[in-house]
Design goal:
The strands form 7 sheets. A 6-stranded mixed β-sheet has the order 1-2-3-4-5-6. The chain is globular and about 70 Å long. By secondary structure, the chain is of the alpha/beta class. It folds into 3 domains: 2-240, Ribonuclease Z/Hydroxyacylglutathione hydrolase-like (Metallo-beta-lactamase, Chain A, 4-Layer Sandwich), CATH 3.60.15.10; 249-360, Oxidized Rhodanese, domain 1, CATH 3.40.250.10; 363-470, Oxidized Rhodanese, domain 1 (3-Layer(aba) Sandwich). The chain is 30% helix and 24% strand.
């Protein structure tokens, strides 16, 4: 048996290929939309991908089931409660797909979603009585369980799904042998849970002992715990969940439309009619020079998550990238179903060399300079981190303005006062500063290095310790 985990850090997403060396067949579970890596891996191991499983209709990314179907003729499998526009094989408890000496067996585990399944993996050379592993999708994570509130917009009650999740965990997963490996669909950083651990594999026994949500408790207590304090879900989550159930264009079809160079004049014309200019360069490069009105979401961070949070799906997107990174910028948008890219700025920022009046900059301040300006009581210091991060520590006198809600909170910010923005390390503050500039705030700067640099300056550069509030 071959069982290989593919991990996509920017979406904290784990997918899997399970293969049988005897029959040379393989299945892929919860694939990302760009599927070349699975086919390359399969080819290098002499395997053919004939099956693709979705543990559920994912909300945080668009899965690659249709891509694998169209590329290699893979059969699609979903839980029997699923409803989709495309043909699939429904799986109920105990249904099996045999790959020679490898058996994949369905376990219905609703709760995160109504159609959620887990997949028991049996290596028949080790034995047929106990599963070697279980692929738990978003039902069970390392250190956490799937949140039951992401289907509220589609008519499901979080409390009802929470009750189903309790039954799935206690009646289906916890009875499995302690030695069974647990392979979830997400790791730390995913918004599909609130306390997911950094490990990407565990065992049933380890989770029984250490997972807060698997400790003995009543169903009502469990529902209260798993529905409380969940992070805000980005607005594209419901869109992606629905898209995963639809017959849609493949990523290759989308990219064929999108990857066209656009002249500067054409980009400016699109901007005039509501086009969104997405600059995917690093924050420091964006700060040094950028096209006025563009939004900076750098490829070096959680690019797709923030693009799906900040950008709209109804307006076209123009990519501004370092030459050679236009395709990556579009592919990573495609992973969340943002297929409304209309092209990229030809020659990137070099196209502005003859049009300096179109160029803007963003001042990046050292913590010391920022602290001096704040002491003058004129600038307003904005903390764009999450509420939880701010509760742990923040800069004294700063105002909370979480990035995912910045457009709404900007209505209350003064436009006649300088704004200084900070985050944890400088990635989100660049997004925030560019967004505020686009919204008409003229005097916006950011703290280079974020609160991490501020804390270092407290220790080594003479900024008073009182400038940081802990707890």
């Amino acid at each position: 048996m071959i069982l290989h985990q593919f991990y996509l850090n920017c979406l904290a997403h784990a997918s899997y290929l399970i293969g049988d060396e005897l029959t040379r067949t393989a299945a892929v579970v919860d694939p990302q939309r760009d599927v070349d890596q699975y086919l390359t891996f399969a080819d290098s191991h002499g395997l053919q991908v004939k099956h693709v499983f979705l543990t559920h209709f994912h909300a945080d990314f668009v899965a690659g089931h249709l891509e694998l179907r169209d590329r290699v003729g893979a059969t699609i499998y979903l839980g029997r409660a699923a409803k989709a526009e495309f043909a699939f094989t429904p799986l109920a408890d105990g249904d099996r797909v045999e790959l020679g000496r490898v058996r994949l067996q369905a376990l219905e585990t609703p709760g995160h979603t109504a159609e959620s399944i887990s997949i028991l993996v049996f290596d028949l050379d080790r034995g047929a009585s106990a599963p070697y592993a279980v692929l738990t999708g978003d039902t069970l994570f390392v250190g956490d369980v799937g949140r039951p509130d992401l289907r509220v917009a589609l008519g499901w009650s979080a409390a009802d799904l929470g009750g189903l999740l309790y039954d799935s965990l206690w009646k289906k997963l916890l009875p499995l042998p302690d030695a069974s490996l647990v392979y979830p669909a997400h790791g730390a950083g995913s918004l599909c849970g609130k306390a997911i651990g950094k490990e990407t594999v565990s065992t049933i026994g380890e989770q029984r002992h250490s997972n807060y949500a698997l400790q003995p408790m009543s169903k009502s207590a469990f529902v209260d715990i798993v529905t409380a304090d969940q992070p805000d879900a980005p607005p594209y989550f419901t869109y992606d969940a629905v898209l995963n159930s639809q017959e849609r264009q493949t990523l290759d079809e989308a990219l064929a439309r999108q990857l066209h160079p656009l002249t500067l004049d054409r980009v400016l014309a699109l901007q005039e009619v509501g086009g969104q200019l997405l600059d995917t360069r690093e924050p420091s490069d964006f700060a040094a020079a950028h096209l006025k009105g563009s939004i900076n979401i750098g490829l070096g961070g959680q690019y797709a998550i923030w693009a799906g949070t900040i950008l709209g799906r109804e307006r076209p997107i123009v990519i501004i990238a370092d030459p050679g990174r236009e395709n990556e910028s579009a592919v990573r948008l495609g992973r969340i179903g943002f297929d409304h890219v209309v092209g990229y700025l030809k020659d990137g920022l070099r196209s502005l060399e003859s049009r300096p009046e179109l160029t803007a900059t963003t001042e990046r301040l050292s913590p010391g300079v920022a602290a001096e300006r704040v002491e003058s009581n004129r600038p307003l210091l904005l903390d764009v981190r999450t509420t939880g991060e701010r509760a742990q520590k923040h800069v004294a006198g700063s105002v909370a303005a979480p990035l995912n809600r910045l457009v709404e909170s900007a209505r209350e910010l003064p436009k006649d006062r300088p704004l200084i923005v900070y985050c944890a390390g400088g990635y989100r503050s660049s997004i925030a500063a560019s967004l505020l500039q686009q919204l008409g705030f003229r005097d916006v700067s950011e703290v280079a290095g974020g609160i991490a640099a501020w804390e270092t300056a407290v220790l080594h550069s003479g900024i008073p310790p009182s400038s940081l509030v802990h707890g």
